[in-house]
Design goal:
By secondary structure, the chain is mostly helical. Helices cover 58% and strands 7% of the residues. The strands form 2 sheets. It has a two-stranded antiparallel sheet with strand order 1-2. The chain has a two-stranded antiparallel sheet with strand order 3-4. The protein is elongated.
Length: 137
């Protein structure tokens, strides 16, 4: 029964739930970027370059059963990846910039040392006698 309880605690942790939401949103985002690439960018690149990458193939051998390398699909996938990475870069850059503006300045930590008024050496803040000159503080 301990294993089931441990697994339940693991699943209900915030990090696991955040990861699950991220994967789901990432899947939806990938579909949007794929559509952007296949429906808008690839045809535009085809106009300027005269080639639609998705149609590029290389037939290995002769006959109907000869294998075909669809390297145009690979080029499209690489462009898809680069666009996704670029968009995520800009989103994270904007998020980090906004987080830096919202971040409260940290207050300085309480001092841990003080200066002895007699010998001017540095001693712990809670000291009642100076360790250097043995003066009572």
């Amino acid at each position: 029964m301990g294993l089931v309880k441990e697994f339940k605690e693991f699943i209900m942790r915030g990090n696991v739930m955040d990861l699950a939401v991220g994967v789901i949103i990432g899947g939806a985002f990938t579909a949007i970027v794929t559509s952007l690439n296949e429906d808008l960018i690839t045809p535009l690149l085809g106009i300027f370059g005269g080639t639609d990458f998705s149609n590029l193939t290389l037939k290995l051998g002769s006959g109907e059963s000869a294998p075909v390398l669809a390297y145009g699909n690979f080029i499209t996938a690489v462009i898809n990846f680069l666009i996704t990475a670029l968009v995520l870069f800009f989103i994270l850059k904007a998020f980090n910039t906004a987080a830096a503006k919202v971040k409260k300045p940290e207050e300085p930590a309480a001092p841990t040392t003080k200066v002895c008024p007699y010998c001017k050496s540095e001693i712990p803040v809670d000291a009642t006698r100076c360790g250097h000159c043995t003066s009572q503080l």
